[in-house]
Every structure is written in structure tokens, then in C-alpha cells.
Design a protein that fits this description.
Elements (H helix, E strand, L loop, with lengths): L2 H7 L3 H18 L3 E2 L5 H27 L6 H21 L9 H14 L2 H10 L4 H24 L27 E2 L17
Antiparallel strand pairs: 1-2
Helix pairs in contact: 2-4, 3-7, 4-5, 5-7
């Protein structure tokens, strides 16, 4: 495609960024597959982090290409915020039992930390700055998610009259759920020929 054709369809970069984000959303919706929220906690964490890693590796070229313009682009900044909100939504739906009885302020703080821990800013630090392999980076992500969910459960137990199951320690795959299971969260399997799953362009 020539530059003339490109600018014949898009009047400026912001319009191009918006269209790119919309196309990624469409492809990602098509790639959705569910993850079972009734799995034991440690299995949920493992499956979620591995799926996130597979996805983040797949969308890395999109993310890297947008980084240089993100500080100067309102559209890319909006995409970044929407992407984090999407991650927080998935976390609430998949790990909602961990937040029962948690004070709203603590819940928001933990959700924000979980969102940052499982999105592009964290992943690019692990992969490009620390030069970790994908398996090593997954283990760091799993430790972060496990620790933050444990903090949420501890905060819930500190509330009067609240009884919440403690998350299993790393290496123990026998976690159970006392609370009702949250709705199924669509998490796709992304392969070389699949479309990226992210709802918004991560930058």
C-alpha cells in the first residue's frame, strides 16, 4: 500500500490509530475462548498468566510500534487506559471470589496492581529490560498475581464477619472455592495464525 493510498483513507494519525484499535478489537473478539472460573485458584492463575504471556508475545510488534508516539497521541493514551480497564474487568470476573468482603479502596488498589502486572508495561520490562525468557517472565507474573490475590484475601479476612478461603501456596494445586463462581471470562488461545486478543492497543 502506498502512502498516498493510506492518507487517502485516513486524514491524520489519530484517525489511523483509532481505526487500528477498532480492527484489533474485532480480531480479538473473534479469537475469544473461555477459561473455566471454577478451576482451583492456582490452576486459574497458571492458565491466565500463560494465556496472557502468549497474547503479549503475539501483540508485541503492535505495542512496540506505538510506544514512540504514545506520549503525544490522545488516541493511544485512551487506548492504554481502556486496555487497563479491560484487564481489570477480566480480573474481577475471573478472580471475583478473592475480593468478596474486601474494602472498596483496597479492592481498587489490588485490581490496578493486577492490571499493571499482567499487561504490556510489565511484560516489556521483563522481556526487553531484564531480558528474561518467556517461561521466566511467566513465573514472575504468576508470583505477582498470586501475591496480590493473597493480599486481597487477607484484607477480606480482616473484615468482621467475613470468611474467605486462603489462596494455596505456590506448588499446591488443591485450591477450592467457597464463593459462587464468577461468569466465564473469554480468554482465547492465540497462535501464529490467530488474531491478537487484546481489546485495545497496549502501549
Amino acid at each position: 500500500m502506498s502512502l498516498r493510498s493510506l492518507w487517502g483513507h485516513f486524514g491524520d494519525l489519530e484517525t489511523l490509530f483509532a481505526a487500528t484499535g477498532a480492527e484489533l478489537m474485532r480480531r480479538q473478539d473473534d479469537a475469544y475462548e473461555p477459561i473455566d472460573p471454577s478451576l482451583p485458584l492456582e490452576e486459574r492463575i497458571d492458565a491466565y498468566c500463560r494465556q496472557r504471556a502468549e497474547l503479549l508475545e503475539f501483540i508485541a510488534p503492535f505495542a512496540r510500534s506505538s510506544e514512540i508516539r504514545a506520549p503525544f497521541s490522545r488516541e493511544l493514551q485512551r487506548n492504554r487506559l481502556r486496555y487497563l480497564e479491560r484487564a481489570r474487568y477480566e480480573i474481577r470476573a475471573l478472580f471475583g471470589d478473592r475480593f468478596e468482603g474486601v474494602d472498596d479502596t483496597v479492592r481498587v488498589h489490588v485490581e490496578n496492581l493486577l492490571g499493571v502486572s499482567t499487561t504490556w508495561p510489565m511484560w516489556v520490562s521483563l522481556r526487553d529490560v531484564l531480558r528474561l525468557s518467556v517461561p521466566e517472565a511467566i513465573e514472575v507474573m504468576k508470583r505477582s498475581v498470586t501475591a496480590l490475590l493473597a493480599e486481597a484475601s487477607a484484607a477480606a479476612r480482616s473484615q468482621p464477619g467475613t470468611r474467605v478461603e486462603q489462596p494455596p501456596a505456590s506448588g499446591n494445586a488443591t485450591g477450592s472455592q467457597e464463593a459462587a463462581s464468577p461468569p466465564t471470562v473469554p480468554i482465547p488461545r492465540v497462535g501464529p495464525a490467530a488474531a491478537p486478543r487484546e481489546q485495545f492497543v497496549p502501549v
